[in-house]
TrEMBL record:
<dbReference type="InterPro" id="IPR041700">
    <property type="entry name" value="OMP_b-brl_3"/>
</dbReference>
<protein>
    <submittedName>
        <fullName>Outer membrane beta-barrel family protein</fullName>
    </submittedName>
</protein>
<dbReference type="Pfam" id="PF07715">
    <property type="entry name" value="Plug"/>
</dbReference>
<dbReference type="InterPro" id="IPR036942">
    <property type="entry name" value="Beta-barrel_TonB_sf"/>
</dbReference>
<dbReference type="InterPro" id="IPR008969">
    <property type="entry name" value="CarboxyPept-like_regulatory"/>
</dbReference>
<dbReference type="Pfam" id="PF13715">
    <property type="entry name" value="CarbopepD_reg_2"/>
</dbReference>
<dbReference type="InterPro" id="IPR037066">
    <property type="entry name" value="Plug_dom_sf"/>
</dbReference>
<feature type="domain" description="TonB-dependent receptor plug">
    <location>
        <begin position="147"/>
        <end position="220"/>
    </location>
</feature>
<dbReference type="Pfam" id="PF14905">
    <property type="entry name" value="OMP_b-brl_3"/>
</dbReference>
<keyword id="KW-0998">Cell outer membrane</keyword>
<dbReference type="InterPro" id="IPR012910">
    <property type="entry name" value="Plug_dom"/>
</dbReference>
<keyword id="KW-0472">Membrane</keyword>
<feature type="domain" description="Outer membrane protein beta-barrel">
    <location>
        <begin position="372"/>
        <end position="778"/>
    </location>
</feature>
Length: 780
């Protein structure tokens, strides 16, 4: 009870503690200054000076200091980071608020290994920033991300929920378009393999404009990998070790001048876990109850390498970005099943299935980028060509112990083996052009072609005693080939005044889909063209407060594995299969928000509404005592709700950030059956308290709560958990040692129930979630 009171008290404090300053007026201004040697007071010539937007990787403008150590830069109004670099001197930076022409006091640069006190203009770097498009997440500010993956970051992100199997939902909707560095990639199929230490930022855009693909119901999640922002040579290393031998080790390094930038990073991850899952299902007409319990152990070994280079010449930039991923996964799942008569409790059937599974994943992503800049910051031209490949090879060895409750060798009376070889190819070519108009407005236009191929070859075999060998089963084995092409073009018109900004866009997408079942010769082709309008507006009430409104029409196409009709019979009584007749969802999404930005705090309030025609959802159908879980198009779904996201420095040493998202969902699947109509209210809250303590210590307390949420046939139950993190910094914050206790009270689990006219079902799943991680890191 005291923990709940503390949690809700912190939420109240977060949304009440706001004060600060505002903005300035628009325009372009000059920034002048001079650089001197901190020891001799002599002017420093040929110092590289660059002005960056916070979080951006390329400078807005840059120059060298002259023979007298003086420099001049010009840029539009806004907040910037000013950085200076000269070999043999410590690199420094300042936060600059440019609202008028400014002349800085002389800046002293310190030779390496000396302290610099004159130029220390620092403020807390908020872990979350909210703007008119959405959210920007800085993972390094959350200690719980140390040694974790992308999914760990998203678990602590406002509006985002991560399910038991790693599926992402955003404001209650599961369809998200996940990008890597703004591009489609086959590597996003396994997000738990992307280490948190390789991620610079994550952008979440709930209602993207026409520049982005119209794909996905919930919006866009863009993962920006580290490539180095600062001039000079920089790097960092991280080593994490935890209970059950969990381990994460990584290093990133880059060297940047005003002419070129090269970067690279490597990460090794070993993750071990145990878990259990319990299911109870009663089929009413059979009068039988099925109880199933699964125990699992798993280990994953992963290697990730990101690398690339940028070359700057004149107003041109040529870049190469690469990402390689390799992992080996092994797990043992032992399923205990018993079927009993409801009235007498007599045993009808019992068996044990032990699945020993190994999986090897390898993938690579390559991109070549050309960008042309102009004197006007509102004019640009970019061409991107990328290709990604992923190969997943999985072997399942299944031992069956029929009429037995123990997996003993003397009880072994069946063996099965399955091989899955899946290859994914994605090629993207796109070009974007932006130019200002004489009226002060701006026009953006672009073309994009995305070509994909997913080839899934599945071979299922049974051991035949009479020949002492495994024989393929053609009724289950299959090869499914999915191909699609999406060719798109967009046009955006935007304008800005002192108080009002707007962006109106239209995107057209032609879609061609071709699926082929090799063992039946069945082919299915679809092609269609859709228009997707979008609108974003921002009205500045005053220096601190702004109103925003956005609308977009979107599409969510069924994925290849949802279309594959062949069953997964790892459990012969609970089968999962695809549906080749699925059609895409069509979505209308609206959002109205208020943003209050102050010097040390911000509060964003969003009202949102989403209507979906042809909602894609999983339904369970019982046939001959076997339950089949498969996707289906429901009539409609709609959700509406409110979201609060706040950040504040309550004290210079105490920062709080958190969110509350509350929404109502209504699902209408009456086209399948009246029992597939459901509605309900859900909410979730995330809260992070960060404390800067004496002697270089920092402490974080993170809490997450997710209420029960309805599905087409039932609901998922609520869950909550809390993390604790303590860190000690060394060597002027270049080094740090931290300890993290995840899920302090061991409360994190997934559970739910379903109820229809023919059956009821409950499930409970718990993976090991309480563990300790110790991390050390150093940056140079």
């Amino acid at each position: 009870m005291k923990l709940n009171q503390l949690y809700y008290l912190s939420v109240c404090i977060l949304f009440l503690a706001f004060a600060g300053k505002g903005y300035g007026q628009s325009g372009e201004f000059s920034l002048r200054g001079s650089l001197v040697d901190g020891s001799s007071e002599d002017p420093l010539s040929f110092v590289q000076v660059a002005l960056y937007k916070p979080g951006e990787e390329r400078p807005v403008t840059f120059s060298d200091s002259n023979e007298d150590g003086k420099f001049t830069l010009r840029a539009p109004e806004g907040d910037y980071i000013l950085r200076f670099f000269l070999l043999g001197f410590d690199e420094n930076e300042m936060e600059i608020n440019l609202q008028q022409n400014r002349v800085l006091d002389p800046i002293k640069m310190t030779p390496e290994n000396q302290d610099l006190e004159e130029v220390v203009v620092q403020s807390s770097k908020f872990p979350i920033r909210s703007d008119a498009e959405g959210l920007t997440i800085n993972p390094s500010q959350n200690l719980s991300n140390l040694g974790g993956t992308l999914l760990d970051i998203l678990r602590n992100t406002p509006s985002v929920s991560v399910s038991e199997d790693g599926a992402i939902t955003l404001r209650g909707s599961s369809g998200t378009n996940v990008l890597i560095n703004g591009r489609n990639s086959s590597l996003t199929q396994n997000l738990d393999q992307i280490p948190a230490s390789a991620i610079e930022q994550i952008k979440i855009i709930n209602n993207p404009n026409a520049r982005y693909d119209a794909e996905a119901e919930a919006g866009v999640i863009d993962i920006l990998l580290k490539k180095g922002q600062s001039l000079g040579t920089h790097g960092n290393g991280e080593l994490t070790y935890g209970t059950r031998g969990r381990m994460n080790a990584g290093v990133n390094i880059n060297h940047r001048t005003l002419r070129y930038n090269v970067f690279g990073g490597y990460n090794f991850r070993r993750w071990r876990s145990i878990g259990e899952r319990r299911t109870e299902r009663e089929i009413f007409e059979d009068g039988e109850i099925l109880n199933q319990n699964t125990n699992s152990t798993s280990e994953n070994l992963g290697h990730n390498l990101n690398f690339g280079a940028d070359y700057y010449f004149g107003n041109n930039i040529i870049s190469y970005e690469g990402f390689f991923q390799s992992s080996d996964d092994s797990q043992v799942n032992t399923l205990y099943s018993d079927l009993r008569d409801v009235d007498s409790n007599d045993l009808v059937l019992e068996y044990v299935r032990r699945n020993r599974e190994t999986e090897a994943d390898d993938g690579i992503d390559n991109a070549l980028i050309y960008e042309r800049t102009f004197d006007s910051p509102d004019k640009s031209f970019k061409v991107i060509a990328s290709n990604s490949y992923r190969n997943q090879y999985k072997i399942q060895n299944i031992d069956i112990f029929r009429n037995s409750s123990e997996p003993l060798e003397e009880n072994l009376n069946g063996r099965e083996r399955a091989f899955t070889d899946e290859k994914r190819y994605i090629t993207v070519i796109q070009t974007d052009y932006t130019t200002p108009l004489a009226s002060g407005a701006k026009v953006e236009a672009g073309l994009k072609s995305t070509i994909r191929k997913f080839d899934n070859d599945y071979i299922y075999t049974r051991f035949e005693e009479n020949i002492q060998d495994f024989v393929p089963d053609p009724n289950i084995s299959n090869r499914f080939v999915y191909k699609d092409q999406i060719h798109a073009g967009y046009l955006i018109y935007s304008g800005s005044s002192k108080r009002f900004d707007y962006t109106a866009g239209l995107r057209g997408e032609y879609t061609y889909v071709d699926t082929y079942l090799a063992n039946t010769g069945e082919a299915n082709q679809q092609n269609y063209f859709n228009l997707f309008p979008s609108l974003q507006t921002l009205y500045k009430l005053n220096e601190e407060n702004s109103l925003k409104f956005s609308y977009s029409r979107r599409i969510d196409r069924p994925t290849s594995w949802r279309l594959n009709p062949f069953p997964d019979i790892t459990d012969s009584l609970s089968v999962r299969r695809g549906n080749p007749n699925l059609q895409p969802e069509m979505i209308h999404s609206l959002e109205l928000g208020h943003m209050a930005n102050f010097e040390n705090s911000s509060l964003t309030t969003n009202l949102f509404y989403r209507h979906v025609d042809g909602q894609l959802d999983f339904v369970t159908i019982v046939e001959n005592g076997i339950s089949y879980s498969q996707p289906a198009n429901l009539n409609t779904a709609e959700s509406y709700g409110v979201e609060f996201i706040g950040i504040t420095d309550i004290r210079p040493w105490w920062n709080v950030n958190g969110s509350v998202t509350a929404f109502r969902i209504r699902v209408d699947g009456s086209n399948i059956g009246e029992e597939f109509v459901n509605q309900g209210f859900a909410w979730n809250s995330k809260l992070m308290n960060s404390f800067e303590l004496p002697k270089g210590f920092s402490f974080q307390l993170i809490g997450n709560y997710e209420s029960a949420e309805i599905e087409a046939q039932g609901k998922d139950l609520s869950q909550y958990y809390m993390d604790l993190n303590l860190q000690k910094s060394f060597w002027e914050n270049k080094g740090a040692l931290s300890i993290s206790l995840r899920d302090v009270f061991d409360t994190r689990r997934f559970a739910g129930n379903s109820l229809t006219n023919t059956f009821r079902q409950t499930f409970y799943a718990k993976r090991e979630s309480r563990f300790v991680m110790v991390s050390g890191r150093y940056r140079f």
